[in-house]
Amino acid sequence: MNHLEEWRQSCVDDQLIRLNVSPLMGDAPAQHLLYAEALSRRNDGRLTEGLLQRYAHVANGGWWCSGIDLLSGETDLWGCFKPDRPRQNFENSKLIKYEHPPKVQTGIFALRVPLHLWQRIAEKAQVPLDGTDWDEDQPDLGFWQWLMTHPEVPLIITEGAKKAGALLTAGYAAIALPGVHNGYRTPRNEAGQRIGKSQLIPALAKLAQGQRQIFIAFDQDHKPKTIQQVNIAIQRLGFLFSQQGCNVKILQWDHDHGKGVDDLIAAQGSGHLDRVIDQALPLESWKAQCLQRLTYDQGIEINARYLPTLAIPHSEKFVAVRSPKGTGKTEFLAQIVAQAQAQHRPVLVIGHRIRLVQELCRRFSLPYLGDSANLETSHHQGYGLCVDSLHPHSQAHFNPDQWQDCLIIVDEVEQVLWHTLNSDTCRHQRVAILRSLKQLLQNALAGDGQIYVADADLTDVSLEYLIALSGIPLQPYVIRNQWQPGETEAWPVYHFSENDPKQLVKHLLNHIREGGKPFVCLSAQKLSSAWGTRNLEAYLNKQFPDRRILRIDAESLADPSHPAHGSLTQLNQVLQNYDIVLTSPAVETGVSIDLKNHFTSVWGIAQGVQTATSVCQSLGRIRANVPRYLWVAGYGFNQVGNGATSIPKLLTSGHRLTELNIRLLQQSDLDNLDDLDTGFQAESLLCWAKMAVRVNTAMLHYRESVLGLLQLEGHQLLGHPPKLPQPPIADPNHPVSTVAPQPLREAIEAVREQNYQADCQAIALCPPLEESQYQILKKRLVKNSQERQQIRKYELVERYGIEVTPELVQKDDQGWYQKLRLHYFLTVGRPFLADRDTKIARLLLNQGQGSLFLPDFNGSQLGAIIGTYDILGIPILLGDRQRELCPIDSDLVALAELAIANRGDIKTIVGIGIAQNASPITILRRFLDKLGFGLSLIKTKTINKKRVRVYQIIAPQDERAQIFQAWLQRDRQLPGSSEQWMADYWQKLRGEVPTKENPQPFVQLSLGF
Question: pLDDT for 956-969, tens place per residue?
C-alpha cells in the first residue's frame, strides 16, 4: 500500500498528506533518521557499522513525516519513518512499526495545515479569520502562529501523526505526540532517579496559554496493562496543562468503534467525533471514572449468561468475581461455600445490611449472627454478620485470631467496603472494625484460608485495598464475565429530564390505570419526603383502592405487623400476590426477583441520595426484561467531605483540618496527644478517599452518571416515553377513585402533609420511655410503628431537653438541631465548647486505642467551625442586630475578602461553598443560614451617587432560648467543665476580632491552616 492510500484510510486530507508526508528509500531514510551528534561514530566520523546494520532495513523504503518546529518556526528535523519492512525488537520480539531519530529528544507533530482546513478549524471554533492571518512568506508556520494568538481555539492532543492529520481534516486543531509519555519531561540524574518536577515540553508549553481548552485523545485500548500506562500519561499530562491554567478534558469512545481517533472517524464519521468531543469528561471527572475500572488480568475471562461451575486452582488465595447483575453471582458463591463446608472449613460471610446478610446465610445454609444462640457452635461451621459487628465489643465478640484457614465471602464488596469506611453506623467503632478486618485477612491468607469477593461493578480500588490490608503481595485471580444483554435482554430505559419526577408519576398512574403492574424503586421512605415510599403508597391507595400495594422499606421490613416483614427471604412467593410494589434502597442489593410474567415495568425515582451504582442496582432487582422508566435528579447532594473530586485535594484538606483540630484540643489540655496515631491505616484512608471522589464526581453529574452506567451495561436509552393518551383509558375491571381531580404535585403534597402531621402528632403524644426501656427497644431489630415513635420521642427529649411537640419533630427533621448547636456554642455555650470536643475526641481515642480514623475525627469536632465564625467576625455582627448593614461597609468588605481568600478551607471546615465573585451580603447570608438567622432588605440609600441596599440581621422567632437554658443547665453539671479557659479564650479573641471601627485585624488573620 502506498503512503497516500494509507493516510487516506485514516481520513486525512490529500493536500495535508502532500505537505507533510514523503516517500523515501535508499540512503534517504537513514539521512533523515541518523543525524544526531551523539550517535556512535568511527574515528573518521562515519557512523559505526553496527548502527548502520541496525538501520539497514530502512533502505527498502517507507514514508517519512515531520511538521513544524514551533520554537524556531522552521521545518522540524525530527520526525518519524514508517519502514515497509520493519525490524524486530529483540527484547519482546515485536515489530518496531515506527522509527524515530535516535539519541535526539523526541518532538511533536505540528503538521503543516492547508488554508482550506485552517478555515474549517476557525469556522468550527467560531474564530473568524482575516486577511492578516495568512502569511505568504511563512505559509507553513502561519496556522500555528494564529493558534498561539487565539487561546479560545481548542487543541486536541493525540498520539501518532496520522491521528493528528485526521483531526485536522475533521476541523480540529491537533498536535500529535510520538508516545503517550512524550508530552512532558521529568529531570533525572545519571542513575535514573527523579530529581525534579515533570514539566510540559517547551512546544506544548507555548500552546498552553490563556486558559485554552485542551482535549486529550489517546487510544482506547482493552489490555489492562496498556490502559494503566495510558491513564498514568493522561493524569500527568492533564495535570501539567491544568497547572498552566488550561481547561483539560478527556475524549472517550467505545473501542469497538475504533482503537485510535482516526479509526473512530473512519468507522463512525466526523459527526460522531463531534458528539464524542461534546461528551468529553473534565479531567477530575475522568480521574474519578478511572476508579471504576478493573485492570487486573490474571484469571479467566468468560462470556456467559449465567456463571458456570469453574475449576479454580486450589492455590488461589484471593478470588474476585466481576459479573453483571442477574448472572448468578450468589449461586456461584453458594457452590464455593458448599465445597468449603464439605471440607469442614468454617465460612465467614460479611455484608453491610442485616436483611441481606440474613438472605445470603439462608442461601448458603449458614446461621446469621443475630439468630445464632451459640456462637461457639456456630464458629466451627461459620456464620454471617454485618461488618458493623466485626469488632470485639459487638454481640459477636469478634476475634480475628479465631478465623485462621477460613473461607471469607464478601458479596457486593464495593458497597460493603464503602459502608465500612464511611457509614454512620460504623463511626464509633470504625478503628476497631478496620483493625479486625486487617487482622482477619492476614490470619486467613497466611494459612490455608481464602477470600472470595464479588460485585457487578468490581474495581481495582477494592482489590488494591484488600491486598494492602493483607500485607502480602497477592495477585487476585479475577473471574471476569464479559456478558452483556443482547437485543432481547437489554432493558428499554425511558428517562425523564424534567426538574422533578411529576411527569414520571403521571405516566406511572396511566400505566396502572391500563392494568400495568409496576415495581417502583424510590430513594426515600420518610413521610417528610413527597416522593418517598410511605407517601406514594398513601397516594396510590387513594387513587386505586382495589389494587394490592406492598411497601418494602427499612420500616416495613422491621414491623412484625406489616406484610413486608420477613419478605426478603421469600420475595418471589410474596410479590406475586401484589399489583404494585414500592421499595426503598433496602432492596437495592443482594436480592434477585425472578418472577416471570408478573411485573410489567420497573420505575425509579432517584433524588440524589444513593450512589449512581446503587440506583442501577435497584433497577436490576427485577430480572425480567421489562421496560424501565427513570427520573434522576440533575445533581446529587450526598457529597463526602468537602465535595472534592480530586484525591490529593480531599486528603490534603482533611490532614490540614486534623492539624487544626488537634491544635485546638491541645489548648484545652487534652492529654495523650503525644502518642496520638493520626496515621492509622493509611491504606484505609486512601481507599476512603478514592471511593469518596467517585461518589462526589457522580453527585456533581448525577443524571449523566446513572444513565452512563446503564449504557455501559448494554441497555437501551430511549429518552422520554411517548406522550400520555388524552384522556387516559380506564380499565373497566378496576374502578378508579371518584375523588375530584387535583394537580399531581398538590395531591402528593396534600397526602404528604396529612401523613406527616399525623406522625408528628403521634410522636409527641406517645408515652415516654425510661432509659432502660429505650436501650432494649433500640437494640431490637423488630419494631412496630408505635415503638419507633417512642424511640424518636426519647431521643428528641434527650437532644433538646424540652417538651416534645409536633412542631419540634418537624423542626428536627429540617436540621434544626445542627443550627441550634452551632448557635449555642458560638454564643452562650462557648465556655463548654472545649469540653464538648475534648469529650468526643477522648471517646474516639479510647475506642481506637489511641488511633483515629481522620474523617470521623474531623466530622466530630466543632472548634474549627466556631473559630472560623470568630475570625470572620460573625459573633460581633450577631451582637448588634439593630445595626444597618451595607455591602460597602469596611468590615463586611474585609469579611468577604478573607472568606474568598480562604474559600477552599471554609468549604472543608464549615461546608459552605463560596464563589470567587460572591458579594459580602451573599457570603454573610450563607453563614447566618447555618445558624437559622436571615437578612432582610430594609431600604436603599445613595452613597457617592450610587444606590446601595441596606440590610438587617433577622433573628429566628423560635424556642431556642428555652433550649439553650436546658443545655446550659446540663453542661454546668458535667464534671471538669473548663469555663474559665474558654472565658479567657473568648476575651483574647475579642481583642482580635475586627469591628466596623477597626477592620485592620482581618489583614493579619488566617483560618489557622
Answer: 999 899 999 999 99
Q: Are strands 934-943 and 946-954 parallel, antiparallel or unpaired?
A: antiparallel
pTM of the model: 0.81
Q: Could you give the CA distance from residue 724 to residue 708 in angstroms, rounded to a whole number? A: 27
Is residue 213 classed as helix, strand or coil in its secondary structure?
Answer: strand
Partners of 385 in the β-ladder: 350
- Tell me which architecture the domain covering 493-635+701-735 has in CATH: 3-Layer(aba) Sandwich (3.40)
- Residue pair 459/595 in contact by the 8 Å Cβ criterion: no
Q: What is the dihedral of CA 430, 433, 434, 438, to 10 degrees?
A: 180
Query: What gap in Å lies between CA 320 and CA 454, rounded to an integer?
Result: 6
Which one of 3.40.1360.10, 3.90.25.10, 3.40.190.150, 1.10.3720.10 gives the CATH number of domain 3-187+196-290?
3.40.1360.10
Task: Identify the segments of the chain with pLDDT beneath 50.
Answer: 373, 727-728, 739-740, 977-1009
Distance of CA 914 to the CA centre of its chain: 21
- C-alpha cell, 2: 502506498
Region of 550 (left: φ > 0; alpha: ψ -120 to 50; beta: rest) is beta
Which amino acid is residue 815, in one-letter code? G
Tell me whether residue 204 is exposed, middle or buried, using C-beta atoms within 10 angstroms of its C-beta: 0 to 12, 13 to 18, 19 or more. Answer: buried
pLDDT at 736: 53
- Give the Cβ contact number of residue 323 at 10 Å: 22
pLDDT of residue 219: 92
Q: What is the DSSP string of 953-975?
A: EE---SSHHHHHHHHHHHHHTST
Burial 416-451 (b: 16+ CB within 10 A, else e): bbbbbbbeeebbbbbbbbbbbbbbbbbbbbeeebbb
Q: What is the predicted pLDDT for the residue at 86?
A: 92
Beta strands in 109-229 (DSSP E): 155-159, 173-177, 184-185, 199-200, 213-217
Burial of 917 from C-beta contacts in 10 A (0-12 / 13-18 / 19+)? exposed
Largest CA distance in the chain: 106
d(CA 27, CA 58): 8
Cell of 229: 500506562
**512-529 per-residue burial string, b: 16 or more CB within 10 A, e: under 16:** bbeebbbbbbbbbbbbbb
Q: Is the Cβ–Cβ distance between 914 and 906 less than 8 Å? A: yes
Q: How far apart, in whole angstroms, are the C-alpha atoms of residue 1009 and residue 1003? A: 15
* CATH architecture under which domain 299-481 falls: 3-Layer(aba) Sandwich (3.40)
pLDDT of residue 196: 84
Q: Which is it for the CA torsion 551, 555, 558, 560, positive or negative?
A: negative
Using DSSP, state whether 459 is helix, strand or coil: coil
Residue 558, number of CB atoms within 10 A of its CB:
21
**Angle between helix 413-422 and helix 460-470 axes, rounded to 10 deg:** 60
**Identity of the residue numbered 54:** R
First to last CA, the chain: 64
Ordered DSSP codes for 714-731: T-EEEESPPPPPSSPPPP
Q: Which is it for strands 80-83 and 62-65: parallel, antiparallel or unpaired? A: antiparallel
Domain ranges (residues) in the chain: 3-187+196-290, 299-481, 493-635+701-735, 766-804, 818-1004
CA nearest to 480, candidates 451, 461, 450, 460: 460
Residue with cell 451595607: 886
DSSP letter assigned to residue 762: H
Per the CB < 8 A criterion, the answer to whether 189 and 221 are in contact is no
Asked if 135 and 158 touch (Cβ cutoff 8 Å), the reply is no
Q: Which three cell numbers stand for residue 467?
A: 491486598
Report d(CA 285, CA 288) in Å as an integer.
5
